[in-house]
Structure formats: structure tokens, C-alpha cells
Amino acid sequence: MSELIIRAYRYALDPTEEQVEILHRYATASRCGFNFALGMKTAVYERWCRGRDRLVAEGMDKTEANKKAPKVRVPNRNRTQAYWRETRGQGFIGPLREGQEPRQPFAWWEGVNNRAYYTAFEDADTAWKNWLDSLAGRRPPMGFPRFKRRGATRESFRIVHSLKNPDIRFEGPRRLRIPGGGGQPAFTVRLHQSPRQLTRLINTGHATITSLTVSRHGHRWHASVLARVEQELPTRPTRRQQTAGRIGVDLGVKTALTLSDPLTLHSGQTPLLAVDNPHLLQNTARKLARAQRTMARRYVKGAAQQSKGYEEAKAKAAKLQALLSARRATAQHLVTKRLVEQYAEIALESLNTKGMTRSAKGTTDKPGKNVRQKAGLNRAILDVGFAEINRQIEYKARWHAVTIARVPTFFPSSKSCHQCGWIDTGQTLADRVFHCQACGMVIDRDANAARNIKNHATPIRPLGRASPLEKGL
Q: Quick one: which of 180, 182, 175 has its CA closest to 106?
């Protein structure tokens, strides 16, 4: 079955020194554009708050004051864009010191494609809407949108183009064309990987590029090309998947994944019932801590510009973080791909990762216990990436006609016997072996949990369709 899906293709860039300066300028422009739009929204919101506070000072209830406060119109992307066009060439309004020349407020806009600003305005609209939705209870709680600080936020920018007149395209075997602007021509950047897969789809009319996101991760720049791809999606699992049936997956720290049935990660390798935790953060912790200490020692508080030594230490720490992230992503993509390739149904736990990694420090009145131990457990959970593994399995399952099944969040998978159902209410995290007092079974705690997940998970029917296993395929 052919479907139109949105898919991102990520490539590492190999820019020249001149091109690196251009990419920095684009990223700075995008950051400033976001701050410009957010500043306009914040100013209007503060004016509304002042009107509400006057009503509260007059004795009105705060809930009623929220409804009676004078209405304000928060500028959206179009109004922000219009105001930006009117004011980008004007000097600063306000008194100048003696001998001070008026400065251009938006000097960084020159030589940058205007679409880098427009997408930044859209991002500000999205951040604002997400905050309002969180106040209304339509999404999980989140804080007030924050300005992007220079040096503290990831350098990135996004450009969209017209599908009728595309100017984001591949040129040659390993070249990506990025549109220019502000009187500057477009430029082509060399890629480390070959985009052959995507270029073939484009040349045959099965894919269309919609946008380009360029970002810096540590010591490397990456380009994420977003495309509409017409892809053949299977309507049923393969014969190999149907024969394998369902697999239960238990995520953990001691072993990253414990499986109810064997999984082959590499061809020729013995099938595994458990995928070891590579402990990537633990293996990099000493080098990373040393680099961060060096960076902290070289930091000069209040300095307008930091020293070259500080920038070198900062670059080294960022490189270690980027390598750590890349290794973690490689391990996660490998295991999730093998799962959807070899089984027709994958049973998972409904995990609340945010709640699992919440700090145990408590409050001043009620301080927590074992705070350092809980912090170490939180780091280990985030290092494995429970939420990311679940996310990858969910979207890859659709590409391979795999059904996802889940057990409830508080299902006692580790405390229940998978054979007779007896529950050990006194079991603790320190107990790594499950002893069933009803049937006498002795089994590894995580292996028992994986089998319970397999036995008790309920299939989630995609788009209202029944599970392939329920159809008897």
C-alpha cells in the first residue's frame, strides 16, 4: 500500500571555513528572530497583566479579573513579520550617550535568507501556543517561553521553500544547495554521507523536499532534509514475522532490554534474550567531568568576551557530549530496527519516564531520602533512553506492519509469576531473582517481567484496524 509520509534524512556536513561563518550567521539570525517575536508577545502579555493587576488591586477576585481584564491581541507570525520589515533598518529609539552613534538594531539580518526569520517567527508562535495549551490543560505543564541566549542554546536554523520553484536541492553526488539571501548567492556544502537514497526518490518523482534544518552538534554541523515521500507500506507482516509472533520487552538499567523471546542483532550472532546496557555515560563521565572542570576554571564572570582557552575547553566538552549522543542513538536504532524486522507484535510497558526520573530531594519541610542514589538511578535511566526507544519502536512499527501492545503503567510485571500469577508484595529493587512461593518457579526478575508483559499486553489497533495476529494472519 502506497502512502505519503513525512520523513527526515540527516546528513553530516563538511563546510569550508567561509561556509562555517555563513552557517553561524544564519543560526544567529534565526535565534534573534525568535527572540524578536517572543519579545513582542511578552510585551503585550505584560500589558495585559498590568490591567489585570489593577483590577485585583481594586478588590476584584483574581479569577474574575482574568476574565474582565482588557483584551489584548498577541501578535502572530504575520504581524511580527510586518513589524520586522518596517523597523529592521531603523536606528534605536531613545537617548544616546555623548559621542555615541546610532546603531542598526538588526545588523545581523544582512546576507541571510528571509525564510530563516519567518520560520523562527513560526517557532515562537508554536512555543507560545504550547504554553497557553498547558495552562488550559490540553497538554502537560510547561513553563513560560524563554529567550534563546547566545552561547547557551543550540545553533540551528530552518528554511522552507516553494514546491513549485524548489531551491533546496542536491547538486552532484555529495553536495547540498542552501539558498542565499540579502544579496548573497546560494552556496553548496559538501556532505559526509551519500544522499543517493533520497536523490533516487526525488528523480523518480516519489519524494519532494519541503524544508531544511541545519544545526550544530558539538564539533559537527548536520543538515536534516524533510521530505514528503511516497512509500510502499506493507499491509501485513512478513512470513518470518508471523512465525515469530509476539515478543515482550522489559526496559531496565542493569540490562537495557530483557526479552521474552530471542532477538538477533547481527547476522551470524547467537540470538539474545537480553541486550546489555553499554553504560555510555558512565564510560565517558571521567573525560566529560575533566573537560567541564577545565571550562569552569577558565570562565571569567562578567567578561564581555571569554578567553580562547575557555572556548577550546567548551568545544572539547561539546564534542564529548555530541559523540555520546551519537553512540546512544546508534545503539537505540539498531535494537529497535531488529525488533520491528523480526516480530509481528511488540509488547511494551506504558512508562512514565518523566515521573520515574523525578528528583528525590523533596522540599525544605519534607526533605527526601537517598537523594544521591536516586540521582544516579535517574542518570542511568536517561542514559538508556526509555522514552526514545518507545518512540522509535512506535514509528518504525508502522513501516513494517507491526502491532504495538502495551500493559498499564502500574502493572506489577516484576512482582507477578508469569506461570501462575502469584504476586510477591514484599519484593524490592534489590531482589534480582524472582522466587514464586506458589509454584516454586525461580527465574531472573527481568526475564519474568518480559514474559508477563508478553502475556498480558493489550494490542493497540492502528487506525482502527485489528491486530494481524488477531486476524490469524
A: 182
